[in-house]
């Protein structure tokens, strides 16, 4: 019996306990007219591999909770291996983009039956699903006022639910969601060239991430701070922010995020014309990304980063520090790798950042 490492990683990334996952799955089942019979023991069987293929309704609920199929969560029918080849992403992309053509409420979906008496895990998950929709909208249209305002509405809704949170743990999750929505608004403002608004959003997002004790959200904010500082020409601040991202807990634990922080540091050093420091940071970024496990679920905002984006930023750094041949070589690698880790390459941030 082999443990389901993919589901374990997804559970860890979402910040759920076994009991909270059971609660979220049961909430979905009850909302769709079924009995909620999933227990801690059921989830434990999923994690340990004792149950390799959940019941159809449970698989449907898991897909709603995590936004991906049972196969992508490491489950497999008897006699088969789990597969990540199901072409679901284009379907989800169309669904989200269709939703975003409506009002703000289409992204930040209202809770069934009105405001709940006690806000729990299922409400947190609904709000996080809205973040996925905004990430796809950003990929399709880039930063714009509607995206920024919708993100701010999502943050406001998360904070409004604090008053009815079922537990302190749920309160922290809501702070985390609010931080991510606010960081999304900040990125939209950066992309739309509204630096003052972006700065305000980033300061707020950093506060919320701290209240949530969420290192992933905090790293996201520091990366955005580095990008905004670079746009404003404050290259020393860009390096400082990238170094703060490097020291973050999630960067020390996950080489994917370490690579992202290192490459931002390399960009800052290259703008300061510190050739040695830029190349050193670039080397760390390459080594770290080589160690990253592409099967580990990560937040939707981070899906832009992978080998192709690293090649693009490598070309920029090498060109800045006076290595045109290496810059050209990185550009060739970029053209050969427009397919990072199983999906079509659609960077969340523009090249050159």
Describe the structure.
The chain has 353 residues and is mostly helical. The chain has three domains: 5-73, 434 Repressor (Amino-terminal Domain), CATH 1.10.260; 87-210, no CATH class; 214-353, Serine Threonine Protein Phosphatase 5, Tetratricopeptide repeat (Alpha Horseshoe). It has 17 helices and no strands. It has helices spanning 5-14, 18-31, 40-48, 56-66, 89-99, 104-107, 121-141, 145-160, 168-191, 195-212, 215-231, 235-246, 249-253, 255-271, 275-291, 307-320, 324-336. The chain is globular and about 65 Å long.
**SSE string, helix = H, strand = E?**
HHHHHHHHHHHHHHHHH
Tell me the total number of β-strands: 0
Radius of gyration: 21 Å
Classified in CATH, the superfamily of the largest domain is Tetratricopeptide repeat domain
Query: What would CATH call the architecture of the largest domain?
Result: Alpha Horseshoe
Report the biggest beta sheet as strand number plus sense, adding barrel if it closes: none
Distance between the termini: 45 Å
Q: Given the structure, what is the number of helices? A: 17
CATH class of the largest domain: Mainly Alpha
Low-confidence stretches: 82-107, 110-116, 340-353
Q: Using the alpha-carbon principal axes, give the shape.
A: globular
Domain count: the total is 3
Helix/sheet category? mainly alpha
The proportion of residues forming helix, as a percent range, comes to: 55-70%
Q: Hey, roughly how much beta strand do the residues contain?
A: under 5%
CATH topology name of the largest domain: Serine Threonine Protein Phosphatase 5, Tetratricopeptide repeat
| Mean pLDDT rating | 82
